[in-house]
Amino acid sequence: MIKKQKHFLDDALLIITMAVLAGCGLIYEYLLSHYAGRVLGVMESTIYAMIGLMIVAMGLGAFAARKIKCAFNGFVYLELIIALLGCSAILIIGGLIAFTQLLPHIISDTFSLPPDALPKGGIFKQLSFLAFNSPYFFGLLLGFFIGMEIPLIARIREDIHQQHLANNLGTIYGADYIGAGIGAAIWVIFLLSIDISKAGAITAALNLLAGSVFIWRYWSKLKWRKTFLSLHFVLALLIIIIFNYGNNWLNQMSNLLYLDKVVYSDKTRYQQLTFTERKMGLGQDSIINFYLNGRLQFSSMDEQIYHSYLVSPVLAGSARHDNILIIGGGDGLALRDVLQWSPKSVTLVDLDAQLLDIFRSPLQHLPKKLGQQIARLNQLSLQDPRVNIISGDAFVEIDQLLKQKQIFDAIIVDLPDPSHPDLNKLYSVNFYARLKQLLAGDGQIAIQSTSPYHAKDSFISIGKTVEAANFNHVQQYHDNVPSFGEWGWTIATKAGISPLKRLNKLTELEIPHVWLNLAMVKSAFNFSTNFYHNKDKIGVNYLGSHILYQLHQQAWLDQQGIIDNKQQNTTN
User: Fold this and answer.
1) Domains assigned to the chain
2) What is the pTM of this model?
3) Which pLDDT score, from 0 to 100, does residue 5 have?
């Protein structure tokens, strides 16, 4: 009876340990793939590649576990290695990327090379390639060691029972699957909203705890006991240090990827926010750049060009401006321009509540100087009493607007490029067709449509997708925005004459703009000869097809080559 009770306690300990370790393993997969997606800029494919690579590595690790002679000692070493890699991998990756980006500048400064002779080719290009792809290397390592856990736990159970256990692997795999599911839930509910270095440290602490409990329970079966205790103590200190300071170190290393000084960085549940500042000398305002996940969203130097083209043509050609809908635009800059047209109400729908809070009350959430600059830039438009802010997924929220039978005189879609499947659905026929139902009969819709130069097929596909949503007239226009290069927009009417014909009836813009005038707007509808020559070969982005996402990813990869540019200005 005592023996059975002892075995019961051992089994309970090992099964619970396996479940905890399975959850940790899944979290490590998510941590590395999430960080790699931010670094490489191709989130979806990176996540799939990382998870697939780690699963293969886990299989190799399971085979390699046969070479470990003592399962008890091997398991303790294994958890030490996994905890060390788990808490430090992200920091090492960030350090490698920062070093390869800084090295050409160090050499340039050392040898006083001119700016156009910055060494970026050859070995520097190869080092940059290796650094940016180092997440896969660490994924391979972690997966390999994680794969050893199940075989070792299985051997330990049979050693304790002193017999072959018929359902041994089934029991352990059951604990593994359940633990992985719990780990996924913890990631989504809790870890996704905290700093990535803290998430790694917390997960590594669980591995260390599992090893510590194992040492306590099987002290008599272990060699090098004092060594194990010393290593656990040292690693515990390292985890505590990384938990407290790792995010600051990671931010400092990430800051080296930006040309300008990083003045504020924060992480929301959905994205990494970064503000940089470029000082322009005495008597001149600094230039503020805002990035989401490392991609430039706006620059105070020329954002008025982008937003004037997004807002002015659609409102100038609309019969009324009483009720306006903005999808995206959480920075309040498009809203600022819309409010100049004296609407009675504006509804703004944006996913990220934390981002909205920052731009709604920049003086409260940002450093004083930066907060003042953002407040001047967006004129605190998000605080205007005429504005109704909805924090949520626009794909879902517009259904609520439809149920409320709301009608808008004009709709402005100011979303990031379709660089992720979750964004791709907001560029689909389904989404545009539902927006059309919200539009007044003589209303217009304007959509930011990526670069007609850098992502030409994506640009054309957006236009074709709007056409497939049965808008009456769909036209596209473009101009140069220095921070982004050539940029494009799509405009469509629900009924009546085309957008350009409406503009041709005007003698001037009703609301004068500091940059844009009517002649510039009209000329923006002209494209180079044969620009649309392959339009018939470009697909329409239906919901679930991911055609636009794939086109955008291909354009992104073509423009990047390897990702060796400090500023990827391809998303607005």
Assistant:
1) 2-252 (1.20.1250), 303-560 (3.40.50.150)
2) 0.78
3) 54
